[in-house]
């Protein structure tokens, strides 16, 4: 019984510790464009550099989503987002308040050749 209680306490501590370590800017990016996204960049709005592709070698296919997490140490709330489709075409958005946004969905209208993002 004691071992079971200790194991439960350890699991609870680990879960709380992981939640405590995550940043308030965490969000889910959903691809609703009809195309594959090969690169994703998230950069503080004040930065002039996109840093590195957060997908690495992965891609974000149509209908898929990716959870983007930040260090708890990160304080900036206002971030810019850039995606690059597998044909090399980029799309950029500025000024997402990631402290208030939990999901960003990207869309593309082929007839209008228009890309946009919706968030909540």
Walk me through the topology.
Blueprint: H1 2-21, E1 27-32, E2 37-44, E3 65-68, E4 78-85, E5 90-97, E6 103-109, E7 114-119
Parallel strand pairs: 1-6
Antiparallel strand pairs: 1-3, 2-4, 4-5, 6-7
Describe the structure using short key phrases.
Immunoglobulin-like; alpha+beta; 3-stranded antiparallel beta sheet; 4-stranded mixed beta sheet; disordered N terminus; 120 residues; globular
Can you walk through the features of this model?
By secondary structure, the chain is an alpha+beta fold. The protein has one helix and seven strands, in the order H-E-E-E-E-E-E-E. The strands form two sheets. Strands 3-1-6-7 form a four-stranded mixed sheet, with no helix packed on it. A three-stranded antiparallel sheet has the order 2-4-5, with no helix packed on it. A hairpin with a 4-residue loop joins strand 6 (103-109) and strand 7 (114-119). The longest helix is centred in the N-terminal third of the chain and has 20 residues, at 2-21. It is globular.
């Amino acid at each position: 019984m004691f071992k079971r209680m200790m194991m439960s306490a350890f699991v609870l501590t680990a879960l709380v510790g992981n939640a405590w370590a995550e940043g308030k800017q965490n969000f889910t990016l959903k691809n609703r464009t009809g195309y594959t996204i090969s690169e994703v960049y998230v950069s503080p709005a004040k930065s002039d550099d996109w840093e590195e592709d957060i997908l690495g070698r992965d891609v974000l296919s149509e209908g898929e989503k990716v959870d983007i997490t930040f260090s708890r140490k990160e304080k900036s709330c206002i971030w810019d987002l850039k995606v690059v489709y597998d044909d090399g075409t980029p799309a950029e958005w500025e000024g997402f308040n990631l402290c208030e946004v939990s999901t960003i969905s990207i869309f593309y209208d082929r007839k209008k050749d228009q890309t946009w993002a919706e968030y909540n």
